[in-house]
TrEMBL record:
Family annotation (Gene3D superfamilies): 3.30.70.2330
UniProt-recorded name of the protein: DNA-binding protein
Keyword Transmembrane: no
Native organism taxonomy: Bacteria, Bacillati, Bacillota, Bacilli, Bacillales
HIRAN domain residues: 1-49
Keywords noted in UniProt: DNA-binding, Hydrolase, Metal-binding
Keyword DNA-binding (UniProt): yes
One of the record's GO molecular function terms: hydrolase activity, acting on acid anhydrides, in phosphorus-containing anhydrides
Length: 117
């Protein structure tokens, strides 16, 4: 992941964190651009795609672009200065549990209205 300095920096990135790699075909600078997104922040950078930004031993965005359709999860493995090394994890997806503060029925009607029907 490169370009972090244009978003939130890399200080918050830690090994084991899950990121989302999303193709960005409308990117005016690179037709093989892959945006890196982290919930709840949003875009945190891009997969490196230049000989000057791809760390030695890593694959560029162009090399991994055809390995997934639109989106794939990845796991941060290393963070060095303002760059993160991410491992693609195609079988991994994030699940979020939302806790509500009131008793909510999963229906288009409020619970009180259900009792009147």
């Amino acid at each position: 992941v490169t370009g972090t300095q244009h978003y939130y920096g890399a200080a918050f990135l830690k090994p084991g964190q899950v990121v989302h790699l999303i193709k960005d075909p409308d990117n005016p600078h690179d037709h093989e651009a892959i945006m890196v997104d982290m919930i709840p922040l949003g875009k945190i950078g891009y997969v490196a795609n230049s000989p000057h930004t791809v760390p030695k031993g890593c694959r560029s965005a162009g090399r991994i672009y055809d390995r997934f359709e639109h989106h794939v999860c990845g796991m941060v493995r290393f963070v060095v200065k303002d760059t993160a090394i991410v491992e693609l994890t195609p079988g991994l997806e994030e699940v979020y549990i939302i806790k509500t503060t009131e008793n909510v029925a999963f229906s288009p009607y409020r619970q009180e209205e259900l009792g009147k029907a």
